[in-house]
Amino acid sequence: MQLTLVNFFKKTVPGHIFRGKRRLVKPVSKRSMETLTREYERQEQIMFLLRHPYLTLEQSSGHAKELQKREKLVAKWTDEQTRSKLKPHVTIEERLQHLRVKEAWD
To answer: Which residues form the signal peptide (predicted)?
Structure first.
């Protein structure tokens, strides 16, 4: 009974408590400020690393050619064993061959 009376006379915000003209505003604490400061410092460090890359444009332009990844990928798909797993190419003529009964036109 006493809990009901306390809740009945409690002054609350009308409507949604975190939106609108009479909303509840969470007070800023020291811990939340420190967390936000750490997050901004972390983002700034990431942006610094992105602004100053490890390799220059000249160094990064040909580094993948030495690894020959593209050639290995092409060789993998041109292998006869891999080609045998794929379905053969079908043309429209082969697909519609059953419609050709006789060549003579009426």
So the answer is: none
d(CA 67, CA 74): 14
- At 1, is the pLDDT very low, low, confident or very high (cuts 50, 70, 90)? low
Q: What is the DSSP letter of 19?
A: S
Phi, psi of 29 (to 5 degrees): -105, 165
CB of 26 closer than 8 Å to CB of 34: no
Cα gap 43→48, rounded to integer Å: 9
Confidence of residue 39 (pLDDT cuts 50, 70, 90): very high
Prediction pTM value: 0.42
Q: Which residue has the tokens 């505003």?
A: 25
Residue 13 and residue 22 in contact, taking contact as beta carbons nearer than 8 Å: yes
**Quick one: DSSP state of residue 6?**
H
